[in-house]
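Researcher: Here's the sequence for the chain we discussed earlier.
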Amino acid sequence: MPVLNSTTTLWTGEHLSALQIKACHQIPLVDGASLVRPWPEVDLWDLWPLQLADGSTALIEGWTLWFVLSAPAGDDPEARHDIVRIRLMAARGSEWRDFGNVLPDDFNPGSREWAGSALFDPETRAVTLYWTASGLRGEEPRTFMQRMFETTGALTGNAEGFKIEGWSEPREIAGGPIPHYVLVTAAEGVPGFIKGFRDPAHFRDPADGADYLLFTGSLKDSASPWNGCIGLLRRDGDEWAVLPPLMSADGLNNEQERPHIVFHAGRYYLFWSTQQKVFAPGVPNGPNGLYGMVAERMEGPWLPLNGSGLVAGNPPEAPVQTYSWWVTHELTVHGFVDYPNSLRGNDYGDAAWRRAHFGGIPAEPFRLVLDGTRAEIAA
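Model: Thanks. This is the structure I predict for it:
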């Protein structure tokens, strides 16, 4: 597997010490009492759009297509990570339509399907899905092994019944021992504190047409338990070449989840999600929120947005109301409703409380305004 060199940017406590949570950086309050679950039989969370190669959101007959993590709504919503499948859904304004599981049964090399990204070719109607296979097919009990795969199928149908058919054989991305990154083979773990090798997100650099995958990673040679990083791969012919991390939070934070890049106004904007509970003890930290950096070119240097990196956080009166945000090319931000109307922070009580309070639906999108190193929620 090819190995390339590049520079890694550090995200540090010094950056977080500059954090100022202004009104323009607080996600609007979600009223949990007014939420409507169109599909009460399933829980929905992480979602990402079908994108064109330039990163813009594909529009199919007036609809956008979304890939959404889903699970049957059981007694405990926190158990959803062990039974998760990717669903295909369509959105137009506030209307959503559900088209069921994206991948056929027994297709995924893992025991469940975790997040990724998806690329659309409008000329051939080909859809390339990058996703995380967690665990191994048929395993018992479930493990936290993480591998990344890609497959290509053909989009068929219309808004009355979109479907992706003819998926190619899953092809593993960056499998086997590689430099820089922990390959996650853990048998046990707690969400938020496991290591990462997941969330592949496609980005094509407009400067030279190179294809990259960003991913949630963990540093192999770190001495700290809080060794999160944003990993980077670059397409090299039919393979993915391994690069050093784009960003390291070594000693600061354990997880920078679902990283992705948006090219806007001639600049590269890197975004990721993280939670207050995964910052190292004794260091400056921030809320559950969307964080980011900006650069003039893919190689960097990358500068934290707003000085600290925080772009948009949950309000103090609802610290876990939403999570796992995706910023589109059009600067709309899509997440899911987690536990609204709760001051419990990251202590979710017992299973009955969690089921009674879990949102489990896409959150109302909001928009960003980006200007150099400044990023704010649009008024």
